[in-house]
Amino acid sequence: MSKPxxxxxxxxxxxxxxxxQSDANREQDFKSGSLGIYLVVGVLATILFIGTIVLIVSxxx
Length: 61
Hints:
By secondary structure, this protein is mainly alpha-helical. The protein has one domain. The chain contains 3 helices and no strands. The chain has helices at residues 6-18, 23-32, 35-60. It is elongated, with a radius of gyration of 14 Å. It starts with 5 loop residues before the first helix and ends with a helix.
């Protein structure tokens, strides 16, 4: 199978993070993608999310 595009990986990680990813997409991710790219995108998305929350809180306080 071919490797998923970066946009597909980002979409998949964000969908999984908010809990709306379908079983079919999840199975396709496990079959076609490598674990490394999903981990990197997931960690970066988490850091970006936490940074955004910290920034919003610092503006409010």
